[in-house]
Amino acid sequence: MSGRQAAVTIRRARGPVRAVVLVLHGGAEHGSAVVRPWRLAYLRMVPIAKSLHRAVARHGVEVRLLRNRVRGWNEPGLDAVRDARWALEGIHTDHPGVPVVLVGHSMGGRVALRVADDPAVAGVCALAPWTPRDEPVAAVRDRAVLIAHGTKDLITSPADSYTFGSRAETAASRIARFEVTDEGHAMVRRAPVWTRLVCAFTLDTLGLPPSDGTLTAAWTRPVAERLRIPL
């Protein structure tokens, strides 16, 4: 992988930057193929990044969309994790001290949950995340966490994300998990639902208006209900 470089698309805040959202795309368990701008896993997150920017830019929030060097998670080197930490370092350099919200889909959801231990991270929004049964939860300690999973996802396991949420409940500052009815892995059948959740969680985590009734109600549910909220 010598000479390869991850890339970041930056959508600027209006006025001084008060926070940054880092958006992470999906991939595969193994893979050394270069992530081109037209790869579907990357393209899937472009409209989410654009919608986020429309929702948060006026509040001084910048949105960054990472494009990994290669498409694989790639144990033991953890290429996707290394790329996310590189992107976080760029945020620290450009905007020292600002809070960061992580938004990731599929493998990107796992990456977000893994790098949430970065001191700037305030919250993680994991969409259809790949969360194996042994995925550690320590990184989300004292972070706000939202998980959303389609009930018809055949690529990543809704049961595994529920198990992860159950284990992370005592570590996270607060956690909610939504089950998106009749939705698969690609988030296309009910795209507005996913986008609304991402925007609402980001604004809520950063303490910005407007509030979202669905999300506000989610935080106050009993734990048993909070991890299986139907949408």
UniProtKB/TrEMBL annotation:
Keyword tags: Hydrolase
Annotated ranges, domain AB hydrolase-1: 21-205
Keyword Mitochondrion attached: no
GO molecular function list: hydrolase activity
Domain of life: Bacteria
Record-given protein name: Alpha/beta hydrolase
Annotated organism of origin: Amycolatopsis albispora
High-level lineage: Bacteria, Bacillati, Actinomycetota, Actinomycetes, Pseudonocardiales
